[in-house]
Amino acid sequence: MFGRKKTAPKPKKEPEVAIEATPELPEATSEVVSETIAEPPVLEQHSKPDVRILYEKTSALFANRFIANAGGGQIILDFSTGLISDHGSGSHILPIQERVAMTPQTAQNLITTLHQILSPPSSETE
Hints:
The protein has 126 residues and is an alpha+beta fold.
């Protein structure tokens, strides 16, 4: 009980920091400024755009079966690896692993591309 009196610790001296004055901002005005906005420049049309391909998904599915449907201005392709047979019940199941939807124009481009790939190369004779 009788002992030394506890005193509060002396506060630590804070380091001095130099504060620079900031320039004052101009006062706001209510003037209306009219500017002429130039038309955006017309971009040159190139026969082939510079496009890089970025594969977001690199897994591949070997599709043995597909179902094609059309409606509402779109073509829908459902892809399956093939039938699964249930020998006990005698039924078959076609599981769909992937679905792709596209416009009719994109579907036509796909048909054209597949036709070019599957056509035998033409032999040029002179």
